[in-house]
Design brief:
490 residues; alpha+beta; Alpha-Beta Plaits; 3 domains; five-stranded antiparallel β-sheet; 36% helix; globular
């Protein structure tokens, strides 16, 4: 049954100012994609609330008319989670950008969902505190989106992902009611529904107030840059460092393709142009701890075959070493107007094998792949470059992405680490979970959203969204030879 958008719009105008309602198609086109960009769909209507009360009234209207809704923050997501695939109201939280409370005595800050990630640290840095989760897009991505996707970042190796730093959530449920999950304390007696909500990708409701945990800024920070003649040597260095008990704040690897792209972006040699891979290691803590850890990491990198190692002490030196890594996606954007990024996870020990397989698959599908990834926790971010948006090329791009994810699963990994499932990877979720597992997850979703109005069609595979393709039927229980044969015929 088609939705009556005129009736919904009239009801919304009773309590929302005109500036908060977007109904003209030329203005709605701004929201037709997210950071993934390969899929586009213009929403029929969008609203930009500024308060919890407004969000509550909006969702009550949707519930009254059985109209689905999709929440959107900054739109930087990389799994299609904020796309309006079917007719649904787009609820944009970017105007909810107030920092509501700063309590340094208890090391917490309370923010609205539209607050940009880097703003949190900026607000408390003068007092010696910071917010640890730091996605590469932290200067533009919002805390609400980070909560929805359970985002990570460079420093998640030591400090964990978003769920490790969110204490409480004020949530508007799909029927418009308001509830509190968690609170201001590290521990709570009740069932951890806060944990269930984080990473649910907008399928359980909309968070309108978020209580975050702050950390004391470390006494000392050192960054190392080691370059290698082979990717295998760089992977070996990662294994040696972690096996030795050294716990860096972050460990990042970039391959030769990405090194070349970064150097081209800056017009100078940010990283050694003849290196097959570079490894960035950041250590933080007390002075003696950092000094000893850096000395040990340098020795282990040299044993693994590092050619040269730079050591940065000052803030300016550290930022110079990190600058290229933080600009990696922008660097690829300069050489290719279109790219598709994936987000698989593998055990650290399998990094060399998986990277070799990605190189092989790149040749098979005749599509270049650049690699940059969180080496410490095996979270890969292969970027597939392509030139045209033809259906044939898009299919090849998606099939290559699927083949890479299957390789991740083959070695005991996962189809996502921090970008979420969304619409992009829902058809692959059953590769990891049984039908009973998926049904159990769906029960949780229905408990929050019995009418199925919140971000419909996302995360879980359905025959309508995925079809009964051969790709979905390939089993991970097949032997390795047959499994690779299946990959090659995508």
């Amino acid at each position: 049954m088609p939705h009556n958008w005129e009736v919904l719009e009239r009801e919304l105008r009773k309590f929302l100012p005109s500036k908060s309602i977007v109904c003209k198609r030329q203005e709605l086109l701004v929201y037709d994609c997210d950071g993934l960009t390969i899929d586009r769909r213009c929403p029929p209507l969008a609203v930009l609330p500024e308060t919890t009360d407004q969000v509550s009234k909006i969702l009550k209207c949707c519930n009254k008319h059985s109209i689905p809704f999709v929440a959107r923050g900054s739109g930087t997501g990389l799994s299609g989670g904020a796309l309006v695939e079917e007719d649904a109201l787009l609820v944009i939280t970017s105007r909810m950008r107030a920092i509501l409370e700063i309590d340094l005595a208890n090391q917490i800050v309370v923010v609205q969902p539209g607050v940009i990630n880097s703003w949190v640290t900026r607000a408390v840095a003068g007092e010696g505190f910071y917010y640890a989760p730091d996605p590469s897009s932290q200067v533009v991505c919002s805390i609400g989106g980070n909560v929805a996707e359970n985002s990570g970042g460079v420093h998640c190796l030591k400090y964990g992902v978003t769920s490790n730093h969110v204490l409480g959530l004020e949530v508007v449920l799909p029927d418009g009611s308001i509830t509190q999950l968690g609170g201001h304390l590290l521990e709570h007696a009740e069932l951890d529904l806060r944990g269930a909500f984080i990473g649910s990708e907008g399928t359980l409701g909309i968070a309108t107030s978020i209580t975050l945990r702050l950390l004391r800024a470390p006494e000392n920070v050192t960054v190392l840059l080691a370059d290698f003649s082979t990717m295998e040597a760089a992977g070996s260095a990662v294994s040696k460092v972690t096996a030795a008990g050294v716990l860096p704040a972050g460990m990042e690897i970039m391959d030769s393709f990405m090194i070349s792209a970064v150097n081209d972006l800056f017009g100078r040699e940010e990283y050694p142009s003849d290196a097959a891979a570079v490894l960035l290691i950041e250590l933080d803590g007390q002075v003696a701890e950092v000094s000893a850890g850096a000395d040990k990491a340098i020795d282990l990198c040299q044993r693994a075959g590092a050619r040269n190692i730079k050591r940065a002490h000052t803030l300016a030196e550290r930022e110079r070493l990190w600058n290229g890594r933080k600009s990696a996606f922008a660097a690829i954007g300069k050489i290719s107007s279109r790219y598709y990024v994936q987000d698989g996870v593998v055990p650290r020990s399998t990094l060399p094998r998986v990277l070799k397989e990605i190189e092989r698959l790149s040749r098979i599908y005749q599509l270049p792949v650049a690699n940059v990834f969180h080496a410490g926790d095996g979270n890969l971010h292969p970027l597939i470059l392509y030139k045209t948006d033809s259906s044939e090329v898009q299919k090849r791009v998606r099939d290559l992405g699927a083949a890479i994810l299957k390789e991740c699963l083959l070695v005991g990994g996962s189809i996502t680490g921090e970008h979420g499932v969304g619409s992009d990877k829902r058809c692959y979720l059953e590769w990891m979970f049984s039908s009973n597992d998926l049904a159990t997850m769906s029960f949780v979703r229905k408990a929050f959203d019995p009418n199925g109005l919140a971000n419909p069609g996302k995360i879980f595979p359905t025959p309508r969204s995925c079809g009964e393709s051969a790709r979905r039927k390939v089993s991970l229980s097949t032997d390795d030879k047959q499994f690779r044969s299946d990959l090659d015929v995508f």
